[in-house]
Amino acid sequence: MNMPVAASGVSRRIGLQRLFLLGGLLSLSQQKAVAGRQLEEPLVDSVRTALSSAISNSAPPIPEFQDTDSRLNYLRWLGAMSERLKRKKPEWDVRREFLQTVWYESKRAGLDVSLVMGLIQVESNFRKFAVSSVGARGYMQVMPFWTRVLGDGDAGKLFHMQTNLRFGCVILRHYLERERGDMFMALGRYNGSRGKSPYPNAVMANKRIWDWAP
Questions:
Q1: pLDDT tens for residues 64-118?
Q2: Are 107 and 113 in contact (CB under 8 A)?
Q3: How far apart are CA 59 and CA 139, in angstroms?
Q4: CATH at residue 122
Q5: Assigned domain for 5 exists
Q6: Which tens digits make up the pLDDT trace of 153-175?
Q7: Considering the chain, what is the average pLDDT of its residues?
Q8: What is the predicted pLDDT for the residue at 15?
Q9: Residue 7 within any structural domain of the chain
Q10: Crossing angle, helix 161-178 and helix 45-56, to 10 degrees?
Q11: Are 158 and 130 in contact (CB under 8 A)?
């Protein structure tokens, strides 16, 4: 039996309305995901000391390699990532320094570099001076209280590239250890939305943009 044209048109309109509503809800959840923040929590002295030591290490972000193959793989990665990042950072020197520092700080913290790149894309879209509505700063949107807990309290330093990336990577590693290796929960804690899926899902989706295999 054929459906009347009018009824068919109503069904299509209802279907489109539902589609637009779903799209709006997804968009809203994604906007909320990046509006979170790390929450200030008490740290035992041993943890605070370990984190402070990791932050204060002033070693320059210069990659070191055990063999030629490792160095060649890094250079291939740098070339591939440079092409992908060109629209965000057009200047080669700026782009190279940023990628070198992300690679260095990620490896130093024992994190997947593509994961850190995905997190940066979600948090700041690669904007060095990004500031959120709750005051999180820089590439990895680090909350200023961390500089008081782990450093000298100078939140302005979070706009310094290496400082921001180091804080962000060390904090994420800390959360990953607190969550016993559960990346989903660690990412939620980083965003201040522990146990909720929008933010971890957004980071993992953007991670795939930066995945690379030698």
A1: 899 999 999 999 999 999 999 999 999 999 999 999 999 999 999 999 999 999 9
A2: yes
A3: 20
A4: 1.10.530
A5: no
A6: 999 999 999 999 999 999 999 99
A7: 85
A8: 44
A9: no
A10: 150
A11: no
Structural domain count, the chain: 1
Q: Could you tell me the pTM of the whole model?
A: 0.81
The three-state secondary structure class of 136 is coil
Q: How far is CA 87 from the centre of its chain?
A: 18
Answer for the pair 31, 23: CB distance below 8 angstroms, yes or no.
no
15 in a domain, yes or no? no
| Interior/surface letters 85-111, b for 16+ CB within 10 angstroms, e for the rest | beeebeeeeebeebbbbbbbbbbbbeb
Q: Which residues contact 186 (CB under 8 A, 6 or more apart)?
A: 172, 175, 176, 178, 179
Rounded Cα distance, 85 and 210, in Å: 9
SS3 131: strand
* Res 30: pLDDT: 37
CA 141 to mean position of chain CA atoms: 8
The answer to the question of residue 24 being in a domain is no
Instruction: Tell me which amino acid residue 76 is.
Output: R
CA distance 180 to 47: 15
Q: Which domain holds residue 131?
A: 34-210
Alpha helices, DSSP H, located in 34-111: 45-56, 68-85, 92-108
Give the SS3 label for residue 137. strand
Q: How far apart are CA 55 and CA 68, in angstroms?
A: 29
d(CA 29, CA 15): 21
| Half-sphere exposure at residue 88, Cβ-oriented, CA atoms within 13 angstroms | 18
